[in-house]
């Protein structure tokens, strides 16, 4: 039980600290904490309290440990179903009216309050009245499991994280439903001792999720922190470099123009050519550093009210001269008026699309589609290129990481697109496999963009 206690409270801490503002994370952390409280009660019952008695601890210490055991046990039995159902409601993204959303957690507490007031108090063999608690605990867990499994997650990249959550959370909770409520209500007590292995399995899936596809956005958060620190270093570095080169380039231009006038006056053609080369090199240095700095500096959004589909189509039309033999297929549903930075969004789409065109060597198929879910507008950009192996996928969003060897590519296209999406409170996901192409999912939250659907302007366009 020591492993279960440490594992569950560690999971609770990670989930809470990763995004304390998220209701989903808060409730999932509370669920793990409640399960850990049950493991703490078992440790007190089986190990710590007997050890304290064996060591001759005073009555006050023994009483304190016993009360802690009783509280932890009852808290776990009552609140595992409660927090699991609340987590499922948040995870399923069920829209509730404000009054119901505020009152629902209190309504769901009613069975717990009634059981606390009107059932016999705790004892080591019957910590709760199983024959009564089972009638509300099992429905809570069953309803929560249904809500989690019925969550609609369209893009494959997000579906992987969803199934990570399902495999990490549902087996331990459903197993506990049988061992902690159903079987004890039938007279088979202390079945909780068998929970250790299934909790270990859930913890293993959780850890794997952290290092693969992510778990409740935690891997994304880790990546974001690494990305933020890298971008801050790059931004400050390029700002200083830009400033220094501007000063030195200004001196080069000043003296270069002076030497140029002298070369013209004295008709020294060879010197004039050398001076022109120096001036051109100084301008090129300034331009390169300015381009890098522009891509890494903090973005200031200038939102305007526009049709998201129209803005994307406009960006794609500008790419037509670069398509070559690429077949462009566009599936756009017009009518979604949103408040967003049209220029920055178009640039992000252009960066991703150009990466796809170049990856396919300007031959293949590029598909761009705009779909919707209950809460998001999802722009999907898919190519039939060579795809990426695991190393490329893991480093694709790192500033200055590039496999291209052209002098004008700095590896800032995808970091810039990610930066733009984050500024819009959205996300950028990627799915890629070697030999199977690459797909990017730009997810815009409807609420953040104040998206409204205009039926009168709606049309389905396919090109």
Automatic annotation (TrEMBL):
Keyword Lyase: no
InterPro entries named in the record: HATPase_C_sf (IPR036890), HATPase_dom (IPR003594), His_kinase_dom (IPR005467), Sig_transdc_His_kin-like_C (IPR004358)
GO terms under biological process: phosphorelay signal transduction system
Superkingdom: Bacteria
EC number: 2.7.13.3
Keyword list, A-Z: ATP-binding, Kinase, Membrane, Nucleotide-binding, Phosphoprotein, Transferase, Transmembrane, Transmembrane helix, Two-component regulatory system
One Pfam short name: HATPase_c
Domain annotation Histidine kinase: ranges: 240-448
Reaction catalysed by this enzyme: ATP + protein L-histidine = ADP + protein N-phospho-L-histidine
Protein name, per record: histidine kinase
Keyword Transmembrane helix: yes
Catalytic EC class: transferase
Transmembrane segments: 70-89, 101-122, 128-149, 161-182, 194-222
Example GO molecular function: protein histidine kinase activity
């Amino acid at each position: 039980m020591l492993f279960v206690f440490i594992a569950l409270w560690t999971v609770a801490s990670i989930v809470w600290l990763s995004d304390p503002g998220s209701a989903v994370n808060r409730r999932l952390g509370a669920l793990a904490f409640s399960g850990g409280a049950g493991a703490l009660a078992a440790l007190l019952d089986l190990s710590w309290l007997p050890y304290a008695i064996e060591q001759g601890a005073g009555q006050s210490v023994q009483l304190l440990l016993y009360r802690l055991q009783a509280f932890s046990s009852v808290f776990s039995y009552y609140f595992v179903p409660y927090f699991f159902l609340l987590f499922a409601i948040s995870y399923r993204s069920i829209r509730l009216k404000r009054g119901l959303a505020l009152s629902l957690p209190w309504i769901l507490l009613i069975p717990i309050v009634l059981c606390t007031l009107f059932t016999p108090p705790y004892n080591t063999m019957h910590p709760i009245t199983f024959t009564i608690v089972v009638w509300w605990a099992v429905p809570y867990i069953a309803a929560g499991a249904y809500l989690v499994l019925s969550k609609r997650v369209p893009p494959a990249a997000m579906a992987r994280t969803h199934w990570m959550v399902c495999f990490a959370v549902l087996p331990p909770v459903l197993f506990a439903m049988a061992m902690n409520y159903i079987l004890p209500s039938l007279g088979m007590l202390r079945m909780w001792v068998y929970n250790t292995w299934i909790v270990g399995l859930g913890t293993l899936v959780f850890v794997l999720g952290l290092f693969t596809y992510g778990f409740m956005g935690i891997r994304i958060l880790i990546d974001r922190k690494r990305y933020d620190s890298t971008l801050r270093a790059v931004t400050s570095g390029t700002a200083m470099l830009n400033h220094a080169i501007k000063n030195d380039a200004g001196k080069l231009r000043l003296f270069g123009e002076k030497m140029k006038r002298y070369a013209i006056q004295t008709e020294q053609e060879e010197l004039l050519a050398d001076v022109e080369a120096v001036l051109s090199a100084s301008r090129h240095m300034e331009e390169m550093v300015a381009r890098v700095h522009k891509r890494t500096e903090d973005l200031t959004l200038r939102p305007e009210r526009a049709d998201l589909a129209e803005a994307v189509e406009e960006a794609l039309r500008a790419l037509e001269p670069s398509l070559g033999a690429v077949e462009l297929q566009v599936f756009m549903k017009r009518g979604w008026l949103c408040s967003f930075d049209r220029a920055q969004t178009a640039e992000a789409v252009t960066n991703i699309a150009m990466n796809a065109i170049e990856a396919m060597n300007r031959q293949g198929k590029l598909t761009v589609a705009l779909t919707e879910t209950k809460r998001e507008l999802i722009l999907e950009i898919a190519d039939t290129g060579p795809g990426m192996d695991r190393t490329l996928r893991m480093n694709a969003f790192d500033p200055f990481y590039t496999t291209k060897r052209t002098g004008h590519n700095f590896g800032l296209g995808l970091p810039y697109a990610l930066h733009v999406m984050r500024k819009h409170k959205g996300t950028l996901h990627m799915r890629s496999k070697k030999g199977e192409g690459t797909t990017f999912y730009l997810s815009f939250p409807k609420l953040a963009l104040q998206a409204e659907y205009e039926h009168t302007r709606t049309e389905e366009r396919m090109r």
